[in-house]
Amino acid sequence: MPRPAQSPAHEDHHHDDLTAEQRHLATARDCLARMRAHVQSLKADAGDAVSQAYLDAALYYRAEALKDDPETPLFFGRIDTRAPRDTYYVGRRHVTDDRGDPVVVDWRAEVSLAFYRASATEPMQLERRRRFGFTKGALTAFEDETFDAASRHDPSTILQEEIERPRVGPMRDIVATIQPEQDAIVRADLATTICVQGAPGTGKTAVGLHRAAFLLYAFRDRLTRSGVLVIGPNRAFLGYIKGVLPALGELDVRQQTLDELLDAVRVRAADDPETARLKGSARMAEVLRRAVRSNVHPPDEGFVFTHGSRRWRIPSYELAEIVEQLLGRDVRYDAARRMLAQRVAHVVLTRMEAAGESPDDRVQASVARSKPVRDLVDVAWPKVDPRVVVHRLLSDAQFLAANADGLFDEEEQRRLLWAKAPRSAGTAKWSLADAALVDEAQDLVERTPSLGHVVLDEAQDLSPMQLRAVGRRCSTGSATVLGDLAQGTTPWATSTWDEALAHLGRPNALVEELTMGYRVPRQIIAFATRLLPAIAPALAPARSARTSAGALDVRDVPEAGVDAETVAACRTALAAEGSVGLIAADSRVERLARALEQAGLAYRPLGAETDEDTDLSLSLVPATIAKGLEFDRVVVVEPAEIVAAEPRGLHRLYVVLTRAVSALAVVHAEPLPEPLAAHDPHVDASHWP
Phi and psi dihedrals of 198, rounded to 5? Predict the structure, then answer.
């Protein structure tokens, strides 16, 4: 890190400080090793096999969380407080010495707040903040900010270098670089559901993951019992982010795609966009409610219950009143079945009491469980298979018409029906939209268990029915909702967060907007932002905290030269350190794969199911799965093809153009889409430094 020339005495003092900090790092590593060894030495007898297995697993995960990665620094900052005078090293996990005194404090601890929030105007009792620079785990530099009246806070070189550090492989944590506006979201209370509208490069995904880690730290007991879930758009995305929480010591967090979450049926088909939009409409919730309850039929005849030598009669009109009362209550279908049995048993008991008998609660429970009552309930309120209900709706025109009356017109109903109806729910090829319908029907029958917290990324792309499905998973908990309205690429993408949050069941959620990007250079953001007036005119344009010379390179070439120019752009990108993403319309990927192979360039093909580690720097990425991914350098081929491939193609292109964090090369023979082709000297590449 470059520093101004200093006197020899100052240089000696700086060297002594650096040596002392390196010794503290070595001490911290020794303490962490002893902490892990202590956990591994624990052997407890839990008394029974189940409890013992639980305890053994808990000790194993605790030991795993205390593993030391020599490539990852144990601390990245230090704060010196004024009153009381004390020093704290801030790192990824809490480390104590043999006496239990802190050697490193967890970045999530209350005392660490000042490291992220202190400023010249609000020093938060800090005398000094020190940031450390590392090279492959070795402490090599430090940088101080003081908080006296005369201090001037220049931009941190170490902070900037960490933000711009090339990335190879999965996403890294950002604990060393969290900015104050990000930290406010990360540390929000568990009871608060937050929606983060984040422009490209603002770190919204990282903020969501770090909030999950913070909540697990601050509300450990509650969330350990109730669980935390991260939902991502595809396997490639989950593979990219999977290392962040473990790096922060959080191993027990489920990460799933939406089709994995909605697992009552296996997704093996895809709907056309208009059909998927209709199936995803919130109107389907009422159609399903009607369809599930259409199975209820009040008995036509009275009911007779025999107890000993006596017979007790309930007339049909009284049974019908009980059924109608239950239909009027907002309870799950199976809960109402159980309530019906109890109501019938209660009426029998009142008859017994009127005749002078003295039955107690045990008699009522016995009557409710009796075969005659169970047979009555099976006729009046029969068991329902949610898959069968949805199968019938999508294959039986009359059944659909009866339940969609006033909600969907005839043409819409025709679209909702399967073109070739499968014979049974078991043989059906379900789509993802169908899976959300089955999930809704399941919840109408039996309440979906709620988790303590759900992190939902790329939320703008979910349909109302999919949002309802996610909302059920946090109905008694909270959520962190992440997305960008400008990156909505599905036909049913939400237009406002108010609309999406209402479907999620969180209309009063706090909405925070992040517009300052810390990784994507200003030139790339400015180029992509040309699309905003066409795709999301209400959104504030993204800003960037950094520039990078040569960050944007737009190459207009003849059609015959596209492949060769693409290979050349990839070679140039690979010459620098870091990851490279080659992104194109899905239909062009196979052709580009052949070009890379002929050129002898090794690459990793990314698909929707990709979830693997690799040390290859170059990834070949279909445009449809680029969302959420980041690469140091990106080569985009034929933007016009990406736009033409789907109804919301401009939104997809906006996603693709903002995947680069250092440099973007655009190779095209077809004319650029109009918003990009428009000449503007303020954003034209030739005018940037």
Answer: -125, 120
